[in-house]
Design brief:
The chain has 3 domains: 26-36 and 183-250; 40-176, no CATH class; 257-369, no CATH class. The protein starts with 10 loop residues before the first strand and ends with a strand. The protein has 370 residues and is α+β, with helices and mostly antiparallel strands. The chain is 18% helix and 41% strand. It is built from 7 helices and 24 strands. The strands form 7 sheets. A 6-stranded antiparallel barrel has the order 4-5-6-10-8-7.
């Protein structure tokens, strides 16, 4: 990583192919997703109780009253026609991810988020909540004490909120009740899906796997997919085959890419980014207008009226910027950034300069603005 000043600008230099292969070698498991080895999203609708007066206002969140009535009726408490306005309950959405190959009885983490006007979930307890998948089946049941990620304090004339107290987590808060039906051992081939599709990287993965086995066991289908023939690997099972393949090291190819974040003034770029010959001139022009009207009063004991005389102060100021600078052919972006830093160019002005260079067709990289 290379640091440039000022400190507000962080430039992360990605290592290129010119570096030693050992420095860039990445395990296949860190580059691809294996077909069938994936998680499943779960969601549920529940109730958090035990809040210290920071729950939902029932009049503003009638769904809280509905779910509370349903829970009490399931527990044998008849509240038909009763009016209750507790302040220590809150309706929440509960979300979780069911990991691949999860077994019944194991536990997973859940996230709890208020959906009403509750002020905080601190100290609350989630009542038993079933979690459903996209097929509508219940795969887990969540319950436990919510650990909120913030704090809130309120007085008569002021309020202080730090973090997000209306959302929290329950570590190991859900127990798996149903397993995903998937027979991994019956697979005859497995697809390796690249997280960042690239023809060169896919070809290198294919070559590395075949070289490791000494025969053709992998075949590239496209820029994002490599198929592994389980039978050709002669492994005991698909699990053994993936255990052998996932630790093979491959040097991935990277696209030339520049990512800028306008809010923080951050610029992230790869080493392969190049700039063609271009001239850059930048400066700041400020127009300042101030109104200072003058009131003229009539003479004493006269019948005249006060008159407002307009008075304006207009100024046009140009702050010093960089003059006409020429960038030579083949210059790397890191050298341009270093030069701009040496001239004292602010990070946000630097981002504007990069945008203009890209618009001029001189920046040869994918330009992403966040």
């Amino acid at each position: 990583m290379t640091r440039f000043f000022p400190a507000l600008l962080i430039v992360l230099m990605a290592l290129g192919l010119a570096a030693p292969a050992s420095a860039n070698a990445i395990r296949i498991k860190d580059l691809v997703e294996f077909d069938g080895v994936r998680g499943n999203d779960l969601v549920g609708y529940g109730l958090v109780v035990g809040l210290n007066g920071t729950g939902d206002g029932i009049r503003n969140a009638p769904f809280t009253e509905d779910i509370m009535s349903n829970i009490l009726e399931r527990l044998g408490v008849n509240i038909t026609g009763e009016q209750f306005r507790p302040k220590n309950v809150a309706a929440v959405f509960v979300t979780a991810t069911l990991p691949p190959f999860s077994r019944s009885g194991s536990t997973i983490d859940v996230t709890v988020s208020a959906i009403g006007d509750a002020k905080s979930l601190l100290g609350g307890t989630l009542v038993m909540t079933p979690l459903n998948a996209a097929d509508g089946q219940i795969y887990a049941v969540a319950q436990g004490t919510v650990i909120a990620g913030g704090a809130a304090a309120e007085g008569d004339g002021a309020q202080v909120i730090q973090g997000v107290p209306t959302a929290g987590v329950i570590p190991s808060g859900a127990r798996i009740e149903r397993e995903i039906e998937f027979d991994f051992t019956e697979l005859s081939s497995i697809r390796l899906a690249l997280r960042d599709a690239d023809f060169t990287t896919a070809e290198r993965i294919e070559t590395a796997i075949n070289r490791s086995y000494g025969r053709v066991v992998a075949r590239m289908l496209d820029a994002g997919t490599v198929v592994l023939d389980i039978a050709a690997t002669r492994a005991i099972s698909p699990a053994h085959a993936l255990g052998e393949v996932e630790n093979i090291a491959v040097e991935p190819e990277r696209k030339a890419r520049v990512v800028v974040d306008q809010r923080s003034g951050t610029i992230v770029m790869g080493e392969d980014v190049r700039i063609s010959r271009v001239a850059v001139s930048q400066g700041n022009l400020t127009l300042r207008i101030e109104e200072a009207p003058l009131v003229v009063q009539p003479n004493p004991f006269s019948e005249g009226e006060a008159i407002v005389v307009p008075r304006s102060d207009v100024a046009l100021e140009e702050e010093p910027g960089i003059g006409l600078a020429e960038v030579r052919e083949g210059t790397s972006l890191s050298e341009v950034i270093a030069g701009l830093n040496a001239l004292g160019v602010a990070p946000r002005d630097m981002i504007d300069i990069l945008k203009s260079i890209k618009a001029a067709g001189a920046l040869h990289a994918e330009f992403i603005v966040r």
